Amino acid sequence: MNTSALRAALEQAALTERPVNPVYSPLSALGRRQLAPIDLLGQSMSTMAPATCMVFIALWMATFTVGGAGLLAIVGATVVMTLVAFCVRQFTLRLAASGSLYSFVAHGLGKRATLTAAAVLLVGYMGVSISVLSNAGANLVKVADVSGLHLGGESTILAGVAVAIVVVSIAVRGVRFASRTILVIEICTLCLITTLLMSAPVEVNVENTSTDAPIGFVLFLAMQTVLSLAGFESAAFFGPEARTPLRSVSRTVLVSPLLVGALYVFAGWAGMTGHAGTLLNAYFGGVDSGASLVLVIAVNIGVCSSWIASTLGFAQAGSRLLFSMSIEKIVPSFLDRVHPRFRTPWAGVVLFVGVSLLGSMWHDPDHAPDNYDVVVEIALVLGYTMVSIAALRFLGRISEHTAWTRACGLCAAAAGSGLLVFAVLDTGRSGAWGYIAWFVALGASGTIWYWLLKRCRPESLDAIGVFDSVETADLLPGSADLQMSAAGKPVLTRSRHGR
Fold first, then answer.
1. φ, ψ dihedrals at 491, nearest 5°
2. What is the pTM of this model?
3. Is the pLDDT assigned to residue 75 strictly greater than 90?
């Protein structure tokens, strides 16, 4: 092999002076190229909390006599979310952004649509975080009660505060430590849950759980499956921090909903056929159902650990969403503060977890939060629908569409739009006009936000859509020069020292 050109380039690099004013990526503060694929998988798994969601899917299928229709709803929601993942993958193959879906929508749709996506993601992620933190605190008290430490119901708030402090400490400590801890917890809990779901059929001694959601149960189950898969895209928030972002993030985003969706289908089948009886009796019935004390403690610890891991996953994703928005100046600038040693957006972590903690004090997991879930689900479905439409527009603009990408994008957008239409019609039929008003408010949020920014901070509108870009350190000295354009974008030019 002729190595003369390579040798000449290395000699030139050794003789070239380093730039006095190097160019940095706008996301360099987070610490680039440090996360392995296993870390990204741990992040996606944590936000979905598959172990916990399997328990509740099995419960719904066991206590509602919907049969195959319910199982088809779970399968259908999984297929739709996989199509959405394929749309998200079209962005992750081409750019790395700490804003994830929000930043992706910016490259496919207009400014108002992007700000709408920002609003629905904040609402959706914060809504789920409040729910999982509330459940984590309640489950921690339940674990103590089962173990013989009767703390009482009033200690739930203190337990929630304790979980929040632990989550903030781990999230600030670093994503690599957090994601690997999460992955170990989820794998151990999944092994336990899956083993119990394969037990011989046992009668379920759990009272029939009612739902006061203003939609039919099959539609409710489909939207709950979407909610249970929400966060599969959270690995995309760590694109700038991944070692091989375009490859590893894309794989994680596509594999996560397929893998976890298959587990949900399995849990639905186990609940429908009675195989989930042992698990459901142990978790919801305790020792009064005839389950052994050891099994009851093990199941409760596993589910509680999954709730805490999910709280941590959403804190990490939400903090990077706030960090990205802060860089673009569409939210207060103090949220772009990063820990000097661990390179984590500590200000975003503290604010996100703090608001989640306040919300969890109001949220009561023991009193049928179905209405609350529907509010969060509408926001998430709207966000996923918008990113599917953005992928269609994005690939069309850069002329890289194929028949497959166009078909997947159209199907995902149509399914998401259809789910929203059915939800609106069902809520209207039941007279729950507040949900329709909520849907309209979400749709109008981007326009209102755009108007406020145009009046108060117009320069921020041009900065929307920031993503990781090449730095001076990424280039071989002497191969090219990197300069900032008048618009503040990095531009490669021919090296002054080149031949």
1. -130, 130
2. 0.90
3. yes
